[in-house]
Amino acid sequence: MKGHPRVIGYLQRAVSHEFSAAQQYVLQAAQAESWGMQQLAAELRQGVKEELCHAETFIRRLLALGVTPRAGELRAPGVGRSHEEMLRLGLATEAEAIRLYGEARWFCERIGDEENREVFARILEDEEDHYQELERQLTALGVKLA
Question: Which cofactor does it need (predicted)?
């Protein structure tokens, strides 16, 4: 093992988070499709692909550090009983990623681990974009955000 134990912990948690998010979006895509919301189902399926790409990035970092990747426990996915609830669950998932990756990026910066800091920073930016898109979609539904 070549990396700082805390950074490895962040990477392992990130893998679990990304697989949990992908699982949630797969279930939501199927739900949206059952409601006849083909566009939403397609957007959610695109989200699955992005989350799996993020998971693979974190897995590659772990392998580069000589660590066996593990997903740990996946959290129970939220599906939602309405379009709004589905978007809110997605917002919560993205907020969790933003918090985790922001903390990990800060820690990597603090210990001088530039390579992992860059990975967390890049994926953090993607998650922030996802969060903003979900906020936009909620606003388009007429939902007032606090």
Answer: heme b
DSSP-derived letter for residue 3 is S
Rg (CA), the chain: 16
The residue assigned the tokens 């009983």 is: 81
Cα 47 from Cα 20, distance rounded (Å): 12
Residue 7 and residue 64 in contact, taking contact as beta carbons nearer than 8 Å: no
CATH of the domain at 82: 1.20.1260.10
The answer on whether 51 is annotated among ligand-binding residues is yes
Is 146 among the domain residues? Answer: no
- Name the residue range of residue 77's domain: 5-140
- Rounded to two decimals, the pTM is 0.93
- Alpha-carbon span 117 to 111, nearest angstrom: 10
Section 7-33 average pLDDT: 97
54 annotated to bind ligand: yes
